[in-house]
């Protein structure tokens, strides 16, 4: 049994710190690189302030359906996700909406602006389905916040999958539907 496994009967634990995340990654033998920077709240902030960090950069959507099923959808930062049609491929019970900041902190232990593919480490009850977009997974290296938005951590694509599995989250790798660009010219 992995040290990441948790019983549904276990008392709620405080969310992990970035240092604890790095220790767990090291326990798994996963090498990462981390660069600190000013707080980043949006993709636009990230693009202007992060500097030149190679690899795929993530945009993370914390979503829920009407039955309370939760999804963390991780796509490449430029992806324009078609939220109206995402529920079908995911097998969600209804159309999807964004989860509240309170639900995000309760389940994934992070604040808005720091949502990350690493956050399932705090979902010890396995409430969230993690979805990794195939376009993001084309990158050998993937960049994510390490539970805070003041740093960016680079992890190998296969190591990210291995990490998620170790947290008890078998990631769903799929082509996330995109919105069509329908800008009309005058």
Structure, described:
The protein has 186 residues and is an alpha/beta fold. It has a single domain (18-174), classed as YbaK/aminoacyl-tRNA synthetase-associated domain (YbaK protein, Alpha-Beta Complex), CATH 3.90.960.10. Helix content is 23%, strand content 23%. It has helices at 18-27, 43-49, 83-90, 101-108, 157-166, and strands at residues 32-36, 56-64, 70-76, 97-98, 128-133, 141-144, 151-156, 172-174. Strands 1, 2, 3, 4, 5, 6, 7 and 8 form an eight-stranded mixed sheet that branches. The longest helix is centred in the first third of the chain and has 10 residues, at 18-27. The chain starts with 17 loop residues before the first helix and ends in a 12-residue tail after the last strand. Residues 1-11 have low confidence and may be disordered.
Radius of gyration: 16 Å
| Overall 3D shape | globular
Distance between the termini: 61 Å
Q: Kindly identify the CATH topology.
A: YbaK protein
Task: Estimate nothing, just give the exact number of structural domains.
Answer: 1
User: Mean pLDDT, nearest integer?
Assistant: 89
Helix percentage range: 10-25%
Q: Write out the CATH superfamily name.
A: YbaK/aminoacyl-tRNA synthetase-associated domain
- The fraction of residues in strands falls at 15-25%
Number of strands: 8
> Quick one: biggest sheet?
8 strands, mixed
Quaternary organization: single chain
Name of the CATH class: Alpha Beta
User: Can you write the helix and strand succession as a string?
Assistant: HEHEEHEHEEEHE
Low-confidence stretches: 1-11
Number of helices: 5
Structural class: alpha/beta
């Amino acid at each position: 049994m992995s040290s990441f496994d948790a019983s549904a009967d276990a008392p709620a634990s405080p969310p992990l710190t970035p240092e604890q995340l790095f220790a767990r990654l090291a326990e798994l033998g996963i090498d990462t690189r981390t660069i600190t920077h000013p707080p980043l709240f949006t993709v636009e902030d990230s693009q202007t302030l992060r500097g030149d960090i190679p690899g795929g950069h993530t945009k993370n959507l914390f979503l829920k359906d009407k039955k309370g099923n939760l999804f963390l959808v991780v796509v490449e930062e430029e992806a324009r996700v078609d939220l109206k049609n995402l529920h079908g491929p995911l097998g969600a019970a209804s159309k999807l909406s964004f989860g509240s900041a309170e639900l995000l902190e309760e389940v994934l232990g992070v604040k808005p602006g720091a949502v990350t593919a690493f956050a399932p480490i705090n979902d010890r009850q396995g409430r969230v389905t993690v979805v990794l977009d195939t376009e993001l997974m084309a990158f050998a290296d993937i960049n994510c916040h390490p539970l805070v938005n003041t740093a960016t951590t680079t992890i190998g694509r296969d190591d990210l999958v291995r990490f998620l599995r170790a947290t008890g989250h078998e990631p769903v790798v799929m082509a996330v539907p995109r919105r069509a660009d329908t800008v009309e010219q005058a």
